[in-house]
Amino acid sequence: MSKILVVDDEEMMLMMARHILSRKYEIITASDGFEAIELFEAERPDMVLSDLMMPEMDGYELHRILQEKSAGTVPIMFMTADESIESESKGFEVGAADYIRKPLRPDILLKRVGVIMDNLDKIRGLQAEASTDQLTKLLNKSSAQKEIGEAVKKSAGALLMLDLDSFKLINDIYGHIAGDKILIRFAELIKSIIRENDLAGRMGGDEFVVFLRDIDDEKVLKNKANFLNENLLETARKMFGEDMDIPLGTSIGAVFVPEEGKDFSTLYEKADKALYEVKQHGKHGIFVFGAKKRSDNNLASVEGISQMRMILGERNIEPGAYVVEFEDFKKIYRLMVRLSENYKRKLILMQFTLLDESFAEEFKETLIHSLRKSDCVTCSGKKFLVLLPEAALIEAELVKNRIFSRLDKGMAMKIVFEPEKIF
């Protein structure tokens, strides 16, 4: 039921307005502007019906203050016994939705309030449509950023960043229509774990964001994560059959507010870092930014080695070398050295140093696509390192010649090449 705040310094007028309108609307009343402001902030009525001429604060001033305290337009109808055209004209100039004269006629008041409410419903419908993701019916990206951004400034709670694990496989194997059904179902599951005053949105693709007000317990978050993972997998098996072995689930990065800040962008970045932790440790779980260690490594939730293989394995392998960050390259290098020592396997390390960093990106692309899928590459600034398993020095020279033949001669002359036989 829509709520109306009626403001008048005459008790009889308040009683009359309540009697006329209470059959269709919830009515709250205030006897002056100051009381009206307090009630407005506490009750957030759908519209205000206010006497125009009141002591201390008139209707014009009340309207101005309420507009400042509201995120949107506040529909207000003025009541007055003043029959002058000037007062009516001024009322519309300051943004009044309507203007009605005393004494009140019940039929006229009900009709005019009804028109305002109908227009308000239409406006809200258009606003809701503009702010909603059409597929999932959650907030869309821009609305989620705006509304959650406002919420984290004022409220404590937990900001969650959710990402579906192995969702691309659903699209690749079962098609995009099936993928959309999974996204819709996941949005329904999200709605089932949040309350009326919480917020949830789709940031795009299979990425979602949730703000849970006044939640600061990691166990509560873990329970919600477990619920989402269990029910999402159950949904997929009902849709695609019990033999469906795609490790579908959700990884969640969380951050507590205001412990980690009140700015949405900062909090979202921290939640993203927490999400990365989950992705690096088995997926299908939750990690809270700032936690000393993961509360659950989630490997126990993986059913069978075939699912584990899919979690560990690469997806949609591109042609060319395996490109990794330097820290990962060090780990791969150390493992390859162990394998070479134990099994007498050949291994070559190559280093390319650019004398001019301006063509680094072009060289990187040429390098990657001149190597095998089993070769490993890392780069930092002007240095590029390559591991060639099962290769001899002569083969390293051949690889270098192949790379250089694909480069401009002037570019090739600005590269220092150094091969090293490891085993």
> What is the chain-wise order of helices and strands?
EHEHEHEHEHHEHHEEHEHEHEHEHEEHHE
Q: How many strands, which pairing sense, and closed or not: the largest β-sheet?
A: 5 strands, parallel
Shape: elongated
Overall number of domains: 3
**CATH class membership of the largest domain:** Alpha Beta
**Would you identify the CATH architecture of the largest domain?**
2-Layer Sandwich
Number of strands: 15
Cα(first) to Cα(last) distance is 80 Å
**Total helical elements:** 15
SS content category: alpha/beta
Write structural notes for this entry.
The strands form three sheets. The chain has a five-stranded parallel β-sheet, with helices on both faces. A hairpin with a 2-residue loop joins strand 13 (about 375-380) and strand 14. It has three domains: about 5-130, Rossmann fold; about 140-310, 2-Layer Sandwich (Alpha-Beta Plaits), CATH 3.30.70; about 320-420, Reverse transcriptase/Diguanylate cyclase domain (Alpha-Beta Plaits). The chain has 15 helices and 15 strands. Helices cover about 50% and strands about 20% of the residues. The N and C termini lie far apart (about 80 Å). With about 425 residues, it is an alpha/beta fold. Helix 8 (about 175-195) runs antiparallel to helix 9 (about 220-240). The protein has helices spanning about 10-20, 35-45, 60-70, 85-95, 105-130, 140-155, 165-175, 175-195, 220-240, 265-280, 305-310, 325-345, 360-370, 395-405, 410; strands spanning about 5, 25-30, 45-50, 75-80, 100, 155-165, 200-205, 205-215, 250-255, 285-290, 320-325, 345-355, 375-380, 385-390, 415-420.
